[in-house]
């Protein structure tokens, strides 16, 4: 029952993101690419594998500023990224015997933009680029965002 509900929620998120004509997330050359962002947007990434994935930011301007951009994503868990600018590109990696292998994100990850008004529950705008939520089940996403005062 949980797997069926999880799939329905993920399909709904995917359907909502595909119908949006503005800021979007796509897979280019096996990487996740966030483009055309000019206002705060939320992006959900859900691991579809039975092993832990690492989302690593790639193609950035300042190599010394890479700390904090990676997200470890356990099997069948989701993370949400907030950004008010683009582009952002993330690679999907998997650790195997102390070696990090790059995987094609389309084979291991569900990624979509969440419909969102860009405000907290008290109507205060938020901005920046950071992981706002990590390691949540698909069923917990909306509840955990509300606990963080995010209006969904």
Q: In brief, what are we looking at here?
A:
The protein is α+β, with helices and mostly antiparallel strands and 152 residues long. The chain is built from three helices and ten strands; from the N terminus they run H-E-E-E-E-E-E-E-E-H-E-E-H.
What does this structure look like?
With 152 residues, this protein is α+β, with helices and mostly antiparallel strands. It has helices at residues 2-18, 105-108, 141-147, and strands at residues 24-28, 31-35, 41-47, 53-58, 71-73, 78-83, 88-96, 99-103, 109-114, 130-136. The chain has one domain (2-147). Strands 1, 2, 4, 5, 7 and 8 form a six-stranded antiparallel beta sheet that branches. The two termini are 25 Å apart.
How are the SSEs ordered, and which strands pair?
Elements: H1 2-18, E1 24-28, E2 31-35, E3 41-47, E4 53-58, E5 71-73, E6 78-83, E7 88-96, E8 99-103, H2 105-108, E9 109-114, E10 130-136, H3 141-147
Antiparallel strand pairs: 1-2, 2-7, 3-6, 3-9, 4-5, 4-7, 6-10, 7-8
